[in-house]
Amino acid sequence: MIITKERFWEIFRFGVVGTTAMLIHYGIYFVLLSYMNMNIAYSIGYFLSFLCNYLMSSYYTFKTKPSLQKFIRFTCSHGINYFVYLGLFNFFYWIGVPEKLAPFPVYLIAVPISFLLVRFALKKSL
Questions:
Q1: Measuring CA to CA, which residue among 69, 68, 67 is closest to residue 59?
Q2: Each residue of 25-84: pLDDT tens digit?
Q3: Beta-carbon contacts of residue 109 (< 8 Å; ≥ 6 apart)
Q4: Among 32, 33, 64, 29, which Cα is nearest to 46's?
Q5: Is the dihedral of CA 58, 70, 86, 45 positive or negative?
Q6: 92 CB contacts (<8 Å, ≥6 apart)?
Q7: pTM of this structure
Q8: Which runs of consecutive H residues, i.e. helices, occur in the chain?
Q9: Could you tell me if 24 and 45 are in contact, meaning their C-beta atoms sit under 8 angstroms apart?
């Protein structure tokens, strides 16, 4: 697959938005971890970063106008992502990665999958 200049910058912007969403997610997770179950803290962080991610992905990454249909497709793609992320998160915790660090290997594995799903949700093409 040849990466065009336009696709390169799209991937770059996806990285900026993804990093921002990851920081929001991890920050919320880290704070809430002291007060509740790790899966609940992880889920709350995921949901709040999801809302920010939708707006940033629409306007900045893929330069599309948000709509109800795109939000529904984005939500479906993130529903898939959520279960991939949560499964990997619990797997890494199960194999001994400390709960405060378990999200990081998840991000490394799940981000490429997320790019394809989100791109398809917002642009209907890979």
A1: 67
A2: 999 999 999 999 999 998 999 899 989 999 999 999 888 888 999 899 889 988 888 888
A3: 88
A4: 29
A5: positive
A6: 102, 105, 106
A7: 0.73
A8: 5-32, 38-56, 68-94, 103-123
A9: yes
Q: Which two tokens stand for residue 101?
A: 């660090």
Instruction: Look at the block and give the residue holding tokens 């880290």.
Output: 30
Could you identify the residue written with the tokens 């660090």? 101
Q: Is 124 left (phi over 0), alpha (psi -120 to 50) or beta?
A: left
DSSP summary character for residue 2: -
Do 56 and 21 meet the contact criterion of CB atoms below 8 Å apart?
Answer: yes
**What type of residue is 91?**
F
Q: How far out from the chain centre does Cα 123 lie?
A: 17
pLDDT recorded at residue 1: 56
Measured from the Cβ of residue 106, the count of other Cβ atoms closer than 10 Å reads: 22
Calpha distance 106→115 (Å, rounded): 14
